[in-house]
Write a structure and sequence with these properties.
With 463 residues, the chain is an all-alpha fold. The protein has one domain. It has helices at 3-26, 28-33, 37-48, 62-79, 86-90, 93-125, 133-141, 144-157, 163-192, 206-210, 233-259, 265-280, 293-313, 317-322, 324-349, 354-364, 369-379, 387-394, 399-414, 418-438. Keywords: Membrane, Transmembrane, Transmembrane helix.
């Protein structure tokens, strides 16, 4: 493998991604499905690549790119730090408290129910699967291709060679369930009158359908925080992400060779990036004011598109066929969990704008944040439900649970501590129900059609 091999691999990937974007922009049936261009490209890469027709000159190393890109994506999350404001937390405490409890409950159920189902039911049909099989559902559905690659790599380091391919398949199935299922539920909710900001599915903007933003609707991708005379702003932000990514890999190798401990590289990179975020310092005296979080988001999102492509294009079809029955059963259990969270627990734990908030959680519980954002923008294009605002405030509460699951989960599940792992997340789930009842964040008996929207702030105009 040479640098030119990498160049050809990414050139082929880029060609297919551009073709995917062209297909999205031109064909109505693709627009109606809202399939991302990178996912379309991934299917083309799978069909034309070495695992099927073998037409394109991909190298045999394309399966390794997803794991490397994952490190970069998690570094982007760390560099942006945590957005937590106690002042906002005190305002509208009931709405945000109920929403935070709902989001944490989603994690608890996705980390426990599929694993229980896998151990007690799927293993009867496929005795060869191990106790970690159920975690691939949560990694693929809740975490997306990036987390599936990271968790799959961790499982591979522990001796489970097919984990990454199965995780990528679960992630692909999750995105499809998120997009197609989300659109079905949006149409159902608009017919029932449960939506507040878009009453007709046909009102969706052309920008969302085609993926091409018209000039009058465009927004800035970021600001120049350093002078291009000294250093290009994009190079500056790119360096901020590559540093913890590379150092995370080196530090993890050092830890492994010195103490014999195995940690996911993406976790080390995330922690190093978070340390850089802290050292840069926020406020007037800090250096962090020269970091534009929007540029960091764009770099991380761009990497995610290539991650989705390589995650799908490198799937080994014989492995998927071999595990077709257990994998199909596992994904059905995952779909059942997220559907119950949307139409049963969603309205029970969200009072104002219950559907807008629940469909967003459904979206990122079946793929990535971008899927949730896409579904939300379909029915709440101006964030009047304050779903994104509340997510920014309560989002850090999820991070420790996710890091624990992705880092410690594979080790616990393969070392005989599977019921301990499941018990932790079941206890978290039960705790969420108890908290919701204690603080009266339980709206089970209130009719769905009579729920109000989130009230506008005084300085907020009705659009």
């Amino acid at each position: 493998m040479t640098v030119y091999t990498i160049l050809v691999d990414f050139a082929c990937a880029s060609i297919l991604i551009l073709i995917g974007m062209l297909l999205r922009a031109k064909f109505k049936f693709i627009q109606r499905s809202f399939i991302p261009a990178s996912l379309l490209a991934g299917f083309l890469g799978l069909a034309l690549g070495p695992n099927f027709l073998n037409i394109l000159p991909f190298s045999e190393d394309i399966g390794s790119y997803a794991g490397i890109i994952t490190i970069f994506v998690f570094a982007a999350v760390g560099i942006n730090g945590f957005s937590f404001s106690p002042g906002n937390m005190k305002k509208d405490i009931n709405r945000m408290g109920a929403y935070a409890t709902y989001k944490i409950l989603c994690i608890g159920l996705q980390m426990s129910i599929p694993i229980i189902f896998s151990i007690l039911v799927i293993s009867k049909f496929a005795p060869e699967i191990n106790n970690g099989f159920g975690l691939l559902l949560a990694a693929g559905f809740y975490g997306g291709h990036g987390t599936a690659a990271a968790v799959g790599t961790t499982f591979e380091n522990l001796g489970w060679e097919t984990a990454t391919d199965l995780g990528m398949t679960a992630a692909t199935g999750g995105i499809l369930a998120g997009i197609f299922g989300g659109l079905i539920f949006i149409k159902w909710a608009t017919r029932k009158g449960y939506t507040h900001y878009v009453k007709n599915f046909s009102e969706i903007s052309e920008d969302l359908k085609t993926g091409l933003v018209q000039p009058q609707n465009r927004t800035a991708m970021g600001n120049d925080t350093v002078s291009p005379i000294a250093l290009d702003p994009l190079a500056f932000h790119l360096a901020l992400l590559i540093v913890p990514s590379g150092l995370g890999y080196l530090l993890n190798n050092y830890i492994a060779t010195t103490w014999g401990l195995e940690f996911p590289t993406f976790t080390i990179a995330f922690l190093l990036a978070l340390l850089i975020y802290i050292l840069l310092g926020k406020g007037e005296k800090g250096v962090y004011k020269y970091v534009d979080s929007k540029i960091v988001d764009r770099l991380g999102s761009a990497a995610t598109d290539f991650l989705v492509f390589y995650g799908v294009a490198s799937i080994k079809l014989p492995i998927v066929v071999e595990y077709a029955l257990p994998l199909g059963l596992l994904m059905l259990s995952g779909v059942a969990v997220v559907v119950v969270m949307l139409i049963v627990i969603g309205p029970a734990m969200n009072y104002e704008s219950w559907f807008e908030r629940s469909i967003f959680v459904y979206g990122y519980s079946t793929g990535v944040f971008a899927i949730g954002l896409t579904l939300l923008r379909v029915i709440d294009p101006n964030n009047k439900s304050k779903t994104l605002t509340d997510t920014a405030v309560v989002g850090p509460l999820n991070t420790p649970l996710e890091l624990f699951a992705w880092s410690a989960g594979p080790v616990m599940l393969l070392s005989g501590q599977h019921w301990t792992f499941v018990g932790i997340f079941l206890a978290i789930s039960i705790g969420c129900f108890v908290i919701a009842r204690i603080f009266k964040w339980w709206y089970w008996k209130i009719p769905l059609g009579g729920r109000p929207p989130v009230p506008l702030d005084r300085n907020e105009d009705v659009i």
